[in-house]
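Our working data are protein records whose layout never changes between entries. Getting from the letters to the tokens is the skill we practise here. To make this concrete, we reproduce a full record directly below:
***
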Amino acid sequence: MNNSALANTARFIGLILLQVLILNNINFMGYINPYLYVLFVLLYPFNSNQSFFLILSFFLGLSIDIFEDSGGIHAAACLIAAFVRPNLLRFSFGVSYDHQNIRLSATPFGARFSYILLMVLIHHFILFSLEMFSLSHIILILKKTLFSSIFTVILVILSLSLFNKKFR
């Protein structure tokens, strides 16, 4: 097992444990609940096998669903986020992504921020839409998406800057 596979395995397990043991117990004002496990989808190597990545993303969400007893909504949100990830990378990083030569830590902050924000917004919107599963609650879905996304993006950026010296 090479260093990249070992690091991704540790990130996968660590983020699941962090989410289910600590972050699921945070719920500010009924709207804010951070979902830091989406960091795995954000940081998975860009030039890897897309099919394997989709399977891993599904199992990441399924693991959270098993612990939360949430019926598959996290699996669906992770799978959709992983599926749209190449388009978001192309949108945020442009030509650099097409040549598969980008490193998240070496990109401009604006491109990095747009990639993180869009990925988190898509993930959270799908998650809360499936949780409510009713258009009559669209305002609540949008509130939860907005507030949880802001908190999650802040946590993602803080964790990236803390654990990656080249991120700054």
The chain has one domain: 3-167.
